[in-house]
Structure formats: C-alpha cells, structure tokens
Design a protein that fits this description.
heterodimer, A: 223 residues, alpha/beta, Methyltransferase, Methionine Synthase (B12-binding Domains), Chain A, domain 1, Rossmann fold, 5-stranded parallel beta sheet, B: 343 residues, TIM Barrel, 8-stranded parallel beta sheet, 14% strand
Chain lengths: 223, 343
C-alpha cells in the first residue's frame, strides 16, 4: 500500500469506527476496531480519532435534542465494545495527559444514568476516570482524592434529599487538606448553580457537555 | 363571600366548572408527611396506618386542597416482583429489577392490585384519610404510569436500551404494567380515593418526542381512560423538562396536567385550552432553599402567568415538596393562593 493509499485507508477505518459509535452499532464498532488494529493503526489513535470522535458527534446530537438517553446509552455500549478490543493494544504513555477525574453519585442515591453519561463524555474527552459508582460515602471520595493527590471531583444526585452530602464532601475535603488540590463540580436534577455556590463547590454542570466545558476550562488553566 | 370553601368544596366546584373562592393550591406534599408526623420515611412507606395518619397530620397543618398519598415511584414494580431497598429514613428505591430477559418478561404475572406488595399499604392509607378528613378534602393516590413501572421492572437504563433494541420486550412490560395500573385505579376508587398518575421516567429529560409518543403515551392514554370511566378526574404528572412533549401529554386524556420544568406562559400557550394546568414553583431552589418571600414571589408569578389559562389553573409545586422543606415555605405557598381570588 502506498503512503497515500494507506493514509486514505486509515482515515476510512477511523471514520467508520466513529460512525459505528454514532449509529449505536456495537457489532460494526467491534469490527472496525479489529480492522484498525489489522491496518496497523495505533490503538490510542483509534480510540481518540475513532471512538471519541464518534462520541463527540453523539454529544452534539444530545445537546441539540436529536439524541436522548436511550441513544446515548447504546452509543456508549458501542464505544465501550470497541474500546474493549483496542485497550489490550494500548502502549504505555508518559505523563502530561489530562487531569484525573473522580466521579460518583453521592451517598443515599443510586440514580446513576446521568453520572454515567458525564463519565462517558469525560472519558471520551481523554480524562482518566475513577468511577466510584453510586451511593458513595463522603469518606470514599476523600480516600480516592488522597490517593490521587490532585484532579477533579464530579459528584451528582437526582434527589433533593441527598444533596446535603455534597456539602459534607466539600467540608471533608477542606478538613483533609485536599480542597485546594481538587476542583469540585456538582450536578443532577435538583442541583443548581446557587446550590453549588452555597456549599462552596467550584462549578455546577447542567449537563454532560457542560461538564466537559468546565473540565476543559480547568484543564487549560492548569496546563 | 364571607365563609371560605373547604378544600373539598373548592376542588369539587373547580372540577365541575362552578365558581370558587380562591385558586386551588396543591403542593405535592408526599414524603414530607413523615416529617409532619415525626416518623421515618421507612415507617411512612411501609405502614398503611402510619401513612394515613401522616397525610392527615399534614392536611391538618397545611390545609392544602388535595391529599396526595405517595411514597415512591417503584411501588407497582415491587408488587410485580422487583426488589426494593429501604433506607432507614429515605425513599425506597429499586435494588434488583425482576426482568432480565424476554423470558422473565413473559413469565411476569399481573398480581392482585388489592394485596400485592405495598399496594395494600396505600389502600389502607386512603381509607384512613377518607375516614378522618374525607368530608373536608378529597384524597388522591399518586402512583406510577405504565412506563415508569416498566422502568422499575427492567431498570431504567435497560428499558431505555430496549426502546431501540428490543421494542417487543418493552411493549410486553408496558402492557403488563398498564394492566396493573388499571386494576389499582379501580382498587383506589373503591377505597374512596382518586387515582392520579405520575410518570417521572417518561420525562423529556430522558425521552425524545418520538419515544414518548411510541412508548409512554399509549399506556397513559389507556389508563387515564380507565380512570375517567371510573368517574374520576384523570390527573397526570410528569416532571423534568417537558417543552417538547407537553402537547402529547395534553393529548393523553388528562383533565389536569401537573407540570415541572417549563415556563407556564409556554405551557398555557401550547395546551392551556385543552387541560387544566397545575404547577410549578421550583421544589429545590425555591421551596427547599428559598425564604417564604421567595416562595410568595414565585407563586405570585405562577398565578400572574397562568391563572387565566382557559382550562383552569391549580397552584402547586413543580415536583415533590422536598422532605426537609421548611413548613413556613409551604404555608407561604398556600397563603399566596388563599389571598388570590377565584373565579
């Protein structure tokens, strides 16, 4: 294959991979992930220029009200199926990447669809994700924060009854001496910007795209 | 007029198009009743007599225009076999959905609406309220529509996937759920209550217009028609963002539409001539976190925007009044309605 033809083939595969994610086609996503590896495309490039590019299209459609939660979940299934194929072939990379994100649903709440979408978007935007799941104790966030040293904490809830846990988290970070090393964003149905300010969080993410914008803004300041 | 109407007279007159003294006010005082009686949410959600007493206590304190018995949105799914987790002092929630495959869905049986799970708890609560305060106020039971019930049977994320990948599975669950919703409507009516449907999972925050129309609307139509056939006012509440589905909600057969995150002027313009609108003081920002003055200001704006809606208007909270809402904020909401003339 000539260099030009190889380049064209590479572009085709990456576009097909992105398209499979956007079209919620898990089988095609797996097929194109294998094709990428066979064509000698670096696994990292396949994830960022194939899967993530597809997911960016998905985010755009979500933001415009073309896709809703069912579509997002299936696009995500397709993306993760492709990533599962690619992951074993990732070469170790040096530091200098994006800041790690600790994400979870605050204790008392198990509604994690929104959290999972935010996780997915941040993941596809290149942030190393540490997902603590749902019904996460404040102490578990703090333990993870201590382990990582610095980064972003994204915490959500769908219920007004569990919102106070977010305030306790900010407090606990202060007491652990970690508050200055972490940016905290809060989100979920009943959570407002005013609430974020009241509890001393750094930002309120209204939706997944908002969460990416906030994280990117912090990332820029940091680098 | 010198004497105020009782809540029962007011709602009765309102629903039949007769003159009323004030705009009706129905904050969705649900689990907050546990706080009024001084019991835990778990005690409230699992004991019919406690639930009844808590609702009576809340009515005695606040005097709202409708009792709205409710604990959680998974009650029908639980009656069909989904396992719930009961925190000590918070709302029960789905722990293990009962349906993991088409086979499970086929095996699923529609249980007796009078005895299964905690359905009897709700019915006992209705009877208690009717006995204690039934001459002063109507007693409604708010329980989930077929779509929200199917979400509890399957898990919300799995049901969402099914809508695209396994619509046959989704439709089977919706059909069985609808059967139980209808049966329970009958049981509630028999106990002296008004069955009211809530469909929180069918919110526009989750579903597209097309998915709502295909999967959530038919079940609501079927069950609201059943409620109307019981000579009860068909009431439907859907929370979250609903701008792109409100016209479909209004085409569900609901006479009263309780709305959450939408501008009331927009709601009035879109469906005000088709349904009575109910809403929508913000639960968290205003009722939970605001001052009584904040509540009064927002309630006054709701009235200014929507009191003249052709189909009628009921002042309410957009969604459930949060558990720890300061009582003075609920009083402020009701006072705003009471100081406002009727029609």
């Amino acid at each position: 294959m000539s260099g030009e033809e190889g380049q064209r083939r590479r572009e085709e595969i990456l576009a097909a991979l992105a398209d499979a994610v956007d079209q919620m086609d898990e089988e095609a996503a797996v097929r194109h992930a294998h094709a990428a590896l066979e064509a000698g495309i670096d696994a990292y490039d396949a994830i960022t220029q194939g899967c993530s590019r597809g997911m960016m299209v998905v985010s755009g459609k979500y933001e415009k009200g073309i896709y809703f939660v069912p579509e997002i979940l299936l696009c995500a299934d397709a993306m993760y199926a492709a990533i599962d194929v690619l992951r074993p072939h990732l070469k170790a990379r040096g530091a200098g990447g994006r800041t790690p994100v600790i994400i979870g649903v605050i204790e008392g709440d198990i509604h994690d669809i929104g959290k999972n979408i935010v996780k997915l978007m941040l993941d596809s935007a290149g942030y190393p994700m540490h997902d603590l799941g749902n019904d996460v104790a404040v102490s578990a966030f703090v333990d993870k924060a201590r382990e990582l040293g610095e980064g972003i904490i994204a915490v959500s809830t769908l219920m007004s009854t569990t919102m106070p846990g977010m305030g306790r988290l900010v407090e606990a970070l202060k007491q652990a001496g970690l508050r200055d090393s972490f940016k905290v964003m809060v989100g979920g149905g009943p959570v407002s910007a005013a609430f974020a300010e009241k509890i001393g969080a750094d930002a309120h993410g209204a939706n997944a795209m908002d969460a990416i914008r906030i994280a990117n803004a912090w990332q820029e300041v940091r680098t | 007029m010198t004497t105020d109407m009782t809540p029962k007279e007011r709602i009765g007159a309102f629903l039949t198009g007769k003159p009323i003294d004030h705009v009706p006010c129905v904050p969705l005082i649900l689990n907050h009743c546990a706080r009024v009686l001084g019991v835990t949410v778990k005690e409230y959600a699992t004991d019919g007599e406690v639930m009844g007493r808590a609702n009576v206590a809340a009515f005695r304190r606040y005097g709202q225009d409708l009792i709205t018995i409710f604990a959680d949105t998974s009650i029908l799914a639980e009656a069909m076999g989904t396992e719930l987790h009961y925190p000590d002092d918070d709302v029960p929630r789905v722990k293990t959905p009962v349906v993991n495959s088409m086979e499970d869905a086929e095996k699923l049986e529609v249980p007796d609406a009078r005895t299964a799970g905690r359905l009897c708890v709700y019915l006992e609560a209705v009877r208690h309220c009717v006995r204690e305060v039934g001459d002063e106020v109507f007693v409604s039971v708010c329980y989930p529509s077929p779509f929200s019930t199917a979400a509890g049977l399957r898990g919300t994320a799995m049901l969402a996937r099914d809508l695209i990948k396994r619509p046959d599975l989704a439709n089977l669950l919706l059909d069985k759920s609808a059967q139980l919703v209808e049966d329970f409507a009958e049981a509630v009516a028999e106990a002296g209550g008004i069955p009211a449907l809530v469909d929180p999972v069918a919110t526009g925050s989750i579903l597209s217009r097309k998915a709502f129309e295909e999967f959530a609307l038919p079940g609501n139509r079927r069950c609201l028609a059943r409620i109307a056939s019981l000579k009860m006012p068909p009431i439907l509440h859907i929370c979250g963002r609903i701008s792109h589905t409100i016209d479909l909600m209004a085409a569900s057969g609901a006479a009263v539409l309780s709305v959450d995150q939408i501008d009331l002027l927009e709601a009035k313009a879109k469906v005000g001539d088709k349904v009575c609108l109910m809403g929508n003081v913000r639960p968290t920002e205003t009722l939970l976190e605001g001052t009584p003055d904040d509540v009064r200001a927002e309630a006054a704006k709701c009235l200014a925007d929507c009191k003249d809606s052709p189909g009628g208007f009921i002042l309410a909270s957009g969604c459930e009044v949060p558990l720890e809402t300061p009582p003075e904020n609920i009083f402020a909401l009701i006072e705003t309605a009471r100081s406002n003339g009727g029609s």
